[in-house]
Amino acid sequence: MTAAQAALTRFVAEELARPVPPAVATFAAELAARGGQGVVGVLFYGSALRTGATDGLLDFYVLLDRFDAWEARPLIAKAGARLPPNVEYAETTAAGMTLRSKLAVMTLDQFRRHARHESRDTTIWARFAQPCALVWSRDAFAAERVAEAVSIAIRGASWWAAHLGPARGSAADFWLALFARTYSSELRVESGSRPGSIVEAAPERYGAALRLGWAAEGLAFREDLNELAPAISEDDRQKAEGAWKTRKRLAKPLNLLRLAKAAFTFSGGADYIAWKIERHSGHKEVVTPFQRRHPLLAAGPVLWRLWRKGVLR
User: Fold this and answer.
1) CB atoms within 10 A of CB 240
2) What are 52-73's pLDDT values in tens digits?
3) 205 and 148 in contact (C-beta within 8 Å)?
4) Strand segments (E) across 108-248
5) For residue 222, what are the β-bridge partners?
């Protein structure tokens, strides 16, 4: 690990140690107990982390040493090995209230591979370039491993921000350009203003992450009056654009496959998808008894219809 990579990992480790509501930490510990010593760590991210609200759906990533540590049917474990992560629903009672969560399960090695900018799957680096918290870890060494893995995601996102962003601009300009690309390429129901609100919530943090990420990737850049200019040739930018087109073509099909798999792998999957669509778009999708009994069969036609209507972009 270079000095620049170590500096980024320290930055990430400090961010991962941010405090969270006690009920969230308790919930994470309950989830980790399901996998015993096979669980490396549990990450908490998303809107609930930013706002501190616990009345919505909490988002967790459970990182494993190996898939067979998690309680899952062999077919589902195999699906997670081929198309990670597996997504499940869980709830618990803490401090007299019901907490609900969507948890994604994958191995730490899978996380690291998908976090690199070379990955054709943009999900991990796009998500974990944003703030997150390590709410449970097996031990101090495991916490270090998770911090290093999340730093790879920031490096991956920073690399793409440099190659797809403006020739020069503020740190926010680079992140906004990147998130506009990732949000438009994925299957999303959120408003188009979402990328801006994410960066505006912590502008100094994103500025520091970008500079550290570029340094860790070995990308030289100039800075003048808070304007940054990465040293990237026009030829390298054109190659990156070509590589991005491949990822954009793959993004929505991968999202559709994951949504269909999610409807199959956790209880309440059809209702969860309908709730998520209504929450972010205002479009109410009525779930039929057939869809609840056969979520995998029903998911494809429903998602295709919503995509054709423009509810999913």
Assistant:
1) 17
2) 888 888 999 999 998 888 866 7
3) no
4) 132-137, 221-224, 227-230
5) 229
Cross-strand partners of 87? 104
Task: Specify the residue for token string 């990147």.
Answer: 178
Tell me the residue ranges of DSSP E strands in the chain: 39-45, 57-64, 86-94, 97-107, 132-137, 221-224, 227-230
Task: Compute the radius of gyration of the chain from its Cα atoms.
Answer: 19
Q: What is the rounded (10 degree) CA torsion for 264, 248, 132, 92?
A: -10
Give CA–CA dist 162/153, Å, rounded.
14
Domain 3-250, what fold?
Beta Polymerase; domain 2 (3.30.460)
Domain boundaries, the chain: 3-250, 252-309
In what helix (H) or strand (E) does residue 250 lie, and over which residues does it extend?
helix 234-265
* DSSP 8-state code for residue 69: G
Angle at 197 between CA 117 and CA 165, to 5 degrees: 40
Cβ atoms of 273 and 153 within 8 Å: the answer is no
What tens digit of pLDDT does each residue of 115-145 get? 999 999 999 999 999 999 999 999 999 999 9
